[in-house]
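Bump. Still looking for TBCC domain-containing protein 1 structure tokens.
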Amino acid sequence: MDKYIACVWPRLEPFLIGVLPATPPSKFSMHYLRKMACYVRTRDGCFPRLGWHMWRHIACGKLQLAEELAWLYFETFDLLMPRSAEQRLEWAEALSQCHTPKELDRQCCKLSVDTLQFLLFLYLQQLNRISLRTSLIGEEWPSPRSRSPSSSSERDTKINSQNKNWDDQAHLSFIQTHLSELLELLVEPGQLSSSGQVLRDSQLTSEALESLSLLLEGSVSHSRTVHPIHKLLSRSPLQSQAGFSKLSRSYSLQQFQGFLHQALCLNPFGISTCSESGKKLAWALQVEGTLKKAKIFRNAHMAPPGSRLLLMSQVCKQTLAKDSEKLNNANIKLHRCSEAFIYLLSPLRSVTLDKCRNSTVVLGPVATSVHIQSCENVRVVCVAGRLTVGGSSHCTIHALTPTRPLLLPGNVSLTLGPFHTHYPTLEDHMASVGLAVVPNLWDQPLLFGAEVSATDTGCYRIQPPSEFYPLVIPFQMEGDNCEIPWGLPADYQKAVESREKTIEDWQKTVKEAHLNKVQRRQFQALVEQKFHEWLLETGQRQELDSLLPPALTPSTSVDHWPSSHASNSGPTVLKEQQPEQAMGRAPTVC
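Sorry for the wait, here they are.
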């Protein structure tokens, strides 16, 4: 029987991608979700799948949520679901064909979700609300400060900076603490007493168990093969342990709950294990000082799909570039990176920037979410299923996203601009994760929080075309794309063309001045002097210096990320990408 000992753990993605890193609506408490669980089983069009039309009716009519908030949760859950890239591209094309709000609503009503899994998803939003009083106030009873008018805003901001989406210890604790209520949501109404409590002899159907696979997966006796919980329990010995009855084809709720309490353990592919025993990516150059603290770990060599992680921590004053299959569909966390230039040009699953400052991050297409939290003066360039920003200041985000950017409490002086770069395999990478060119809602942010309104736009601005400059990725790569495939918005394209015309006019003026050789040398020296002064004043000199290529030898392992630690060192580059020769040159006098 020893070989049939089960290990069950919380899946990473429902917490990482599905839980919004903010305080959930108060109506997502168990009291209201219990009512919703009974309601959906007794209404047409609600069970076993819940359509947008009926969820809007429940959310707006019963739970008193705003329609845009109801759609936010519905859309987030759909983003979490395992759909093929082709299905997501077809959905994006259908949305792009909608020209009126009525047509858009008609299309949205075609979307439906698994009802029981959606109930679990809504309950999961409480992750960042648990132990709120203890974690934020540090005392059992509210303090005078907690009753101040701004306390709610301060609380939301602090929750955002301390969210538990990456904390696998918190995920396990949440499941262990709230297992009984999670299972109660899956029980049929007939299994409940008149007061709504679960009866002692309640049963859990096989369909309900399959819904629980949204949250739980596991293996048998530490096998490397990972199964969702319903497939794990397809083995007869484990079914017996979990209380399965062949006669009723269901599980005893009480016995099943006891089985899970014994089998639950920490996710072996979570951030804790990755940091402790994941594969450490070696550096070709190790030096004293800031680089000594830098850490990069990954678990792609051992983790199943959906659990592949890459952690980059305390990368400072370097340029790192990576284009590798080992990044494909990975969940990436950049933590406390400072004065760094990071290019991750592969199709990714999700990306989190946490406590980074004074850095530039350019990402390949991100299938689900890019979350920026507690960052300062960071520039992010991304194509993503969703963009979320909270507790950050003076950040600039150039994005292409089919969903409205979600701005959480605590943001100051954000700038939103259109996606403005390209690399040769960008379109192929977008197609592989199911992201299309349209719809693109980068300039229609949604402000989320208890004390914000749709008209409160003080925390962000749309980048004026006069401040817009396209970004050139300074590496030569193989591929077909040589320009932004979908072009720029008209106002921004006009600004770029106007600037190019100014340069052409300047070059023409210099040419028509008919300078002699001595004058040309003097003028060229003056231009170069002013150019280098500008590089120093703006901090661009550091980035250009870090692009000087290092000597990559054939013996360099594909897992080595060479570091650029000084002005004569270059970036980490895979496939021997080389910086363009023109980078760092002063304008030439014609």
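The mean pLDDT is 84.

Edit: fixed formatting.
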